[in-house]
Design a protein that fits this description.
The chain has one domain: Vaccinia Virus protein VP39 (Rossmann fold). It is about 45% helix and about 15% strand. The protein has 15 helices and nine strands. GO terms for molecular function: methyltransferase activity; S-adenosylmethionine-dependent methyltransferase activity.
C-alpha cells in the first residue's frame, strides 16, 4: 500500500510513503481530522478579528492540541513519521517566507544582505569555546536541521521576528503599527510592574536572556537608554549578527554588551541586575530548562528587581482555535512546545521565590509574565 501526501504550497509537492500498513489507522484518523491534503496558507489571520476581539482569552487553560490529549497524540504520531516530518519542515519554511513577503517583509533580501556581509568576522570575538551545549539545544528548530547553530538561522531571524509580529497583529496597517502594539505593550507591562513594586530604585542593569540576534535587546535598550544592557544567548551565530547590526546603527550612549553563555548557568555575579528579560525563549525549552533559567534569573536579580517573560499564551483564543494544519506545522518546528504549554510558569516562578507574579495578555497571541525578587 502507498500513501500520497500532497503539500499545497506555492509549488505543490507530492510525497509517497510506502509500506504504511502500521500507519493505516493513524492516516484514516488524520484524514477525518482534516490533516491530510494539507493546504498551507500564508494568510496572517483566520478570523480577520478586531483588536478588541483578538485580545480575548479562550475558554481552555491551554490549546486542545497541546499536552496529552487525543488530538495532541495524533499530531505527535504524524510528526514521528520521518518522511512526513521532512515534508512538514519544507512546508514550514515555505510558509514562513511566503507569509513574510506577503506582508512586505523582504525576507530573502534581508537574509542575503547578512550572508553577503562581514558578519563572520564577529564570531571570533563572540564565541566562547568552553561552552557545552545542553542536549535539547542541539535539536532542529524552525525547520533548520542545525537549529539555532547556523548562519542561515541567524541571518533569517530578524525577518522571522518581523513576520511573527505581523501575524500577531493582522489588522495593523504596517509593521511599525504592529510593533507599537506587540513591543509597546510588552515594555509597558515591564514598566508598570517595576513602578508598582520597585519604584524606589531605577533600572540600571538589564540582562536579556536568549537575546537571539538582539531585536528584543534593542527595544529594551531604547526604552532604558541610561541602563547598561547585556544580551546573552547560546548561539554565537545569532550573537554575531546582533553585534554586527548594532555596530552599524548610531552609537548608543551605553553600548549593548553581548555574551555567549547558557541562560541556565550564566556565570555572572549574583544580584547584579535590576531587570531580567526573557522574550520568546521558553516555548523552545523543555520544562527543566525553564525551571533552571527562572532560578538563575532569581539569583541574578537584586532585591526588588523585576523579571519579565513574554511568550506564547496558552490561554490565547487565537492559539487555542488554530486550524489543524497550522498547529501541526507549528509543532513540527518546535520540539518542546508541549512541555512549554504544560508548564505552570506562574507556579514555577512562585516556587522559585518570586513575588507579585502577574500575567497579562499583551497581544492576541502572547502573554507577559512579570514578578519581583522580594526585598
Amino acid at each position: 500500500m502507498a500513501f500520497t501526501f500532497k503539500l499545497n504550497t506555492c509549488n505543490p509537492i507530492f510525497f509517497t510513503i510506502t509500506n504504511t500498513s502500521s500507519y493505516d489507522p493513524l492516516l484514516k484518523n488524520a484524514r477525518r481530522s482534516g490533516f491530510l491534503s494539507f493546504r498551507f496558507s500564508a494568510s496572517t489571520t483566520s478570523s480577520g478579528s478586531t483588536a478588541a476581539e483578538a485580545f480575548e482569552e479562550g475558554e481552555l487553560e491551554r490549546p486542545k492540541w497541546a499536552g496529552e490529549t487525543p488530538l495532541s497524540r495524533l499530531v505527535g504520531a504524524l510528526i514521528s513519521i520521518k518522511p512526513l516530518f521532512s515534508v512538514l519542515k519544507l512546508g514550514a519554511r515555505q510558509v514562513f517566507i511566503s507569509t513574510a513577503e506577503k506582508t512586505s517583509i523582504p525576507w530573502r533580501e534581508m537574509t542575503k544582505e547578512i550572508l553577503d556581509s562581514d558578519v563572520y568576522k564577529e564570531l571570533e570575538s563572540i564565541e566562547n569555546p568552553a561552552i557545552v551545549y545542553p542536549d535539547y539545544y542541539l535539536n532542529p528548530f524552525h525547520a533548520y536541521d542545525e537549529g539555532n547553530l547556523s548562519w542561515l538561522a541567524a541571518a533569517e531571524v530578524e525577518a522571522a521576528t518581523m513576520s511573527m509580529v505581523r501575524r500577531a497583529i493582522p489588522y495593523a496597517s504596517s509593521l511599525d503599527e504592529a510593533n507599537q502594539i506587540v513591543r509597546g505593550n510588552w515594555l509597558d507591562a515591564i514598566e508598570k510592574h517595576h513602578q508598582q513594586y520597585s519604584a524606589d530604585f531605577s533600572i540600571r542593569d538589564i540582562l536579556d536572556i536568549g537575546c537571539s540576534a538582539g531585536v528584543s535587546t534593542g527595544y529594551i535598550a531604547d526604552k532604558y537608554p541610561s541602563a547598561k544592557v547585556t544580551g546573552l544567548d547560546l548561539s554565537p551565530y545569532f550573537l554575531s549578527v546582533a553585534q554586527y547590526k548594532e555596530k552599524k546603527r548610531n552609537q548608543r550612549k551605553n553600548p549593548i554588551s553581548w555574551i555567549h553563555a547558557n541562560g541556565e548557568d550564566t556565570g555572572l555575579p549574583s544580584e547584579s541586575f535590576d531587570l531580567v528579560s526573557i522574550a520568546y525563549v521558553f516555548h523552545e525549552c523543555p520544562e527543566r530548562a525553564i525551571r533552571n533559567i527562572v532560578k538563575e534569573s532569581f539569583r541574578l536579580l537584586r532585591p526588588g528587581g523585576t523579571i519579565a517573560i513574554t511568550d506564547n499564551s496558552p490561554k490565547s483564543k487565537i492559539l487555542q482555535e488554530l486550524p489543524p494544519v497550522l498547529f501541526t506545522l507549528m509543532k513540527s518546528t518546535e520540539p518542546f512546545l508541549d512541555e512549554y504549554y504544560l508548564t505552570d510558569l506562574e507556579r514555577v516562578m512562585k516556587d522559585t521565590g518570586f513575588a507579585n507574579v502577574q500575567t497579562v495578555l499583551t497581544d492576541p497571541r502572547h502573554r507577559t509574565v512579570t514578578a519581583t525578587v522580594p526585598y
